[in-house]
Amino acid sequence: MIKSLPLILAAAIALPSAAVQAKPADPAAQLARITAGRTAGTPVDCIQLNQIRSTQIVRDTAIVYSMNDGTIYVNQPASGANFLDSDDVLVTDTHSSQLCSVDIVKLLDSGTHMSTGSVGLGKFVPYPRAKG
To answer: What is the pTM assigned to this prediction?
Structure first.
């Protein structure tokens, strides 16, 4: 019984910290961290697909496109933002070399590959790399 006490105490200490880590980040705070130190530019209708280095979903809020030149573009969908989840995969079906504000992006669950919704893109707000 006495030998199991340290294990019980260790488990009791670990549980609250695991719960804190599992709590999803506040979307507004997450977006603020992503754009920290950058200034928003004039929104644009389209971005070049071949210049996109990576994407990140900010739950219920936005899709962030990181470009090869260091600029990030934040797209707050005109419709369907409530479907955005960081565990989703973005599926775009474009017929040009650009991703535009009129495009629809389908969302698939990364585990099951089942559709979780879609979003209608809005304008892309550029946040160039901070000079310095």
So the answer is: 0.80
